[in-house]
Amino acid sequence: MEQLGGLDASFLYFETPTMHMHVFGLIIIDPSTIEGGYSFDLVRRYLEARGPLIPGMRRKLAHVPLNLGHPYWVEDKDFDLDFHVHRVQVRAPGGDLELSEIVGDIGSRPLDRSRPLWEMHVVEGLADGTVALVAKMHHSTVDGVTGSNMMVQLFDLAPGAPI
Fold this sequence. Notes:
Elements: E1 2-3, H1 6-13, E2 22-29, H2 40-50, E3 59-62, E4 72-75, E5 85-89, H3 96-107, E6 118-124, E7 131-138, H4 144-154
Parallel strand pairs: 5-6
Antiparallel strand pairs: 1-4, 2-7, 3-4, 6-7
């Protein structure tokens, strides 16, 4: 259990129904470099295997009674990866415009504060044959450095990296 500092807690307090305080990452994957070929199931298993390297992916908010202090991060004992990893099919023709519409839609929705504050959307059907990952995390969870470190733990730049 770890209490949020003032800056991280402020990202929660400043959030409104029309101004969400999450950050994004868009990752484009070339499936031709995936040994055995691409499948959504493979991506999900990969995230499940790598998740324990990032304890922040399994923590959620616990509020102090009467809001007399900043919330705490606590382990989500009911963590379910299926609430966080989603499969999306881009509409034809699957270009940048269609991908940007999906990213905009994902960004327009707030994160569920009763669960760990992140989502990953696997976007399939892009015209050039690539697959996009849209990572969304609440700013109270990550800043630039921790977000970069999380992505380093999750992904490898070299094809054929072990799970």
